[in-house]
Design goal:
Blueprint: H1 4-20, E1 26-27, H2 33-41, E2 45-49, E3 52-55, H3 59-66, H4 76-79
Antiparallel strand pairs: 1-3, 2-3
């Protein structure tokens, strides 16, 4: 029996093969249900519409994508001449 790590690797290989064909969006019919669910759970795919997915950078990228970003103070010397009237 395959370990969860081996199953995820198999699903990522299927995604890699699809990405090699070109095109950005992936139809749900292009992946098996098990692969699609594994990739969605690992945040390697993101559903953009019903039956349409785009590849995503995985768990680490998903965490940084939705994390709040600290605000940087705006400084007039870095904004250019249009910032100050």
């Amino acid at each position: 029996m395959a370990t969860p790590r081996e199953k995820r690797a198999r699903s990522l290989e299927a995604l890699y093969r699809l990405q090699g064909r070109g095109g950005g969006a992936i139809r749900s019919a292009a992946l098996s249900r098990a692969d699609r669910e594994r990739l969605l759970a690992g945040r390697f795919l993101e559903e953009v519409m019903k039956g349409g997915y785009i590849p995503f950078g995985g768990e680490a990228a998903a965490l940084t994508r939705h994390a709040p970003r600290p605000m940087t103070p705006l400084r007039p010397d870095t904004m250019g001449p249009w910032c100050c009237y």
